[in-house]
Amino acid sequence: MAEKPQDVIFVGNKPPMSYVLAIITAFSSGNQKEITLKARGQAITTAVDVAEIARSRFIKDLKVTKIEIGTAEMPPREGETKSRMVSTIEITISK
Amino acid sequence: MAEKPQDVIFVGNKPPMSYVLAIITAFSSGNQKEITLKARGQAITTAVDVAEIARSRFIKDLKVTKIEIGTAEMPPREGETKSRMVSTIEITISK
Predict the structure, then answer these.
(1) Quick one: average pLDDT of A62-80?
(2) Domain boundaries, chain A
(3) In chain B, is it the N or the C terminus that has fewer CB atoms within a 10 Å radius of its CB?
(4) Pair type for strands B34-40 and B8-10
(5) pTM of this prediction?
């Protein structure tokens, strides 16, 4: 089997445009048809921004095909004992 | 026609639990089957938190039936001339 192109992009604290660029790069490779953006906590807003910027400004035929939300358990912060629950989002886009 | 119960909750800067409470109240009225959470900008993360808290901790048979993202145009801030684009989310939950 040929090597599989990157199909998941983890969205974190970088500016939205870094992730938009990663999407554009992945799709211009040619054989990439679908990418899933994953984010949690405050980065959820960034993930939505990334999908919207990519769709409205750069890749006109981009479609949001699936959005899922969920909850993940994070290990406790240093000095704390309770684990934290954090919301997550997965946005699948395809062209 | 009977009065329609509130079926849209706008999520803003309040703590997530205020919105969770609004959901619980709306659903306990009895004839409410579906609520849409609407949020934009940083409140998108709060809206996801609200849906997840309501589902995992309070209303066990709650289902997320639809999630949509989009972009809205906001009027320019005072002293600025350009309008701003802001991402939006709509999360529909039903039981």
Answers:
(1) 92
(2) 5-94
(3) N
(4) parallel
(5) 0.88
Length of chain B: 95
Asked if the interface predicted TM-score (ipTM) of this complex is over 0.90, the answer is: no
Question: In terms of residues, how long is chain A?
Answer: 95
Average pLDDT over residues B59-79: 92
Sheet arrangement for strand A34-40: A8-10, A34-40, A84-94, A63-74
**Residues 57 through 76 of chain B touching chain A, CB cutoff 8 Å:** 64, 67-71
Residue whose pair of structure tokens reads 């946005």 in the numeric block? A91
A5-94 has CATH 3.30.110.20 classification: yes
A21 touches chain B (CB under 8 A): no
Q: Specify whether the CB–CB gap between A84 and A74 falls below 8 A.
A: yes
